[in-house]
Design goal:
Shape: globular
Number of helices: 13
Strand content: 15-25%
Distance between the termini: 47 Å
Radius of gyration: 21 Å
Number of strands: 12
Strand order of the largest sheet: 3-2-1-4-5-6
Helix content: 25-40%
Order of helices and strands: EHHEEHEHEHEHHEHEHEHEHEHEH
Largest sheet: 6 strands, parallel
């Protein structure tokens, strides 16, 4: 199924829909950047989950964020429906010319339909091959080759009907001056004046994490060479406990933890000023790649083709190159097992030295 080419379209108001996690939202920025380049006069709004707003709320090409708060369901069924009806009303009132739905949920499709936009682009997902999905979108883009594409490339195919190619697709992460001022103040309080490395070993999913002792050994070796290592993590208690254990295993006295002390935008500012970022498959890894900070990414049983860091200055270590890994689709995401153990410290440290010597 080929999608029509709408090269004569000159939208003034565009709504982009994506309802996923933080990293997914960052990987929509190539679409936003390409739309802004093609239609510089257009106002570009985004519908996303409330908790992922920091990934886009400082983007200079984004006019407005519409947020869907997953906490609404805690208020009860009727209250949730009232919130969502109000949201749909706001979107309908905005009079969008063009809606691009990058999501596969029915909720996103129904919102696209109720937007009343003349042009509603969506993906022709096999699992959504039915009359209602086609009613919600009047332009459907094939997804037959999506498994062979990076997530950025998948998102960019939604722009094919507009005559916009994925060539040169660029992700970006933005923050405010105040975000760097906060991070800089925390560094100053720790007397960090030399070039530093940001290392975020945590993930919301344990199976994506490297062993604590290997993280500690990496810190010790880099610290011994004169580099200050800044440990970061989210505020989740499990992530903070992991950081505490890593610190206990470290022999270095110069390692610093800012775990749980930074917002996402402040973390972006810190990464942007770092000489190097080391981390696992997570949103901060995608942030580092988008900020063009040299990035070492450690991967286990994730779909590497879809989620590797996008852009230049990145090096990926995949545990599957060192030992057998289970199929990503077979993983129980609640498991406490870590699948990155086979990645050796020596290879990661060697890669770090290579970036730091540039």
């Amino acid at each position: 199924m080929a999608s029509p080419i709408l090269t004569t379209l000159t939208p003034q108001k565009i709504l982009l829909i994506k309802l996923r996690h933080h990293g997914d939202m960052l990987l929509t920025t190539p679409v936003i950047n390409a739309l802004h380049q093609r239609y510089p006069q257009a106002k570009i709004d985004v519908l996303l989950y409330a908790e992922t707003s920091p990934m886009l709320d400082a983007h200079p090409a984004v006019n407005q964020l519409h947020v869907l708060d997953r906490k609404w369901k805690q208020e009860g069924g009727w209250q949730k429906l009232r919130h969502e009806a109000r949201l749909i009303g706001q979107i309908r009132h905005a009079n969008y010319d063009l809606v691009i739905n990058l999501a596969d949920q029915w909720r996103s499709a129904v919102i696209a339909l109720f937007s009343s936009a003349r042009t509603r682009i969506g993906f022709a997902f096999r699992k959504r091959d039915n009359f209602l999905w086609r009613c919600c979108h009047n332009v459907l883009v094939p997804t037959d080759n999506h498994e062979q594409l990076h997530t950025v490339e998948q998102n960019m195919t939604a722009l094919t009907p507009l005559g916009i190619s994925a060539e040169g697709a660029r992700a970006s992460m933005h923050y405010h001056t105040a975000d760097w001022q906060k991070a800089e103040a925390l560094l100053a309080a720790q007397q960090v004046t030399s070039p530093f490395i940001v290392l975020q070993p945590t993930s919301r999913w344990q199976f994506k994490c490297w062993d604590d002792d290997k993280v500690a050994a990496t810190i010790d070796q880099l610290s011994a060479e004169g580099y200050r290592v800044i440990l970061t993590a989210g505020p989740d208690s499990k992530e903070l406990a992991m950081i505490d254990n890593i610190l206990a295993l470290c022999h270095s006295k110069t390692v610093i933890s800012l775990a749980g002390q930074l917002s996402l935008r402040q973390l972006a500012a810190l990464i942007d000023h770092a000489r190097l970022f080391i981390g696992v498959d997570s949103a901060p890894m995608h942030m580092a790649a988008a900020l063009e900070t040299p990035c070492i990414a450690l991967f286990g049983p994730s779909k590497l083709q879809l989620w590797h860091p996008w852009g230049q200055h990145n090096q990926v270590f995949w545990a599957g190159d060192y030992a057998p890994l289970p199929d990503p689709d077979s993983i129980n995401t609640n498991t406490q097992q870590r699948f990155l153990s086979a990645i050796p410290v020596s290879d990661v440290v060697a890669a770090a030295r290579s970036f730091l010597d540039e």
